[in-house]
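Pilot study result, target chain (77 residues):
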Amino acid sequence: MKYEELIETVSEIINNDKIKKDNMVLVYELDETMHKKMDEHLFYKSNPADAVFEHKDVVEVIIGGLTVRFIKKDLEG
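Predicted structure:
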């Protein structure tokens, strides 16, 4: 999943009045490589250029009032 795809998906949900969004949380399970790339991309989109990136296991962002959570795929189970 790329950042642009995320924005497109979330925009579709936000702009659709038929979808109830109260307390909605989208959870994306990404493999370790994609998870780190998304974490890094979101970090640099929302922080100053001189901020120090520290990778997290769970990444959450709120876009248009919708919570989007990225977790690492459990490759063992």
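One observation from the pilot: The CA atoms of residues 30 and 65 lie 22 Å apart. A full batch analysis is planned for the follow-on phase.
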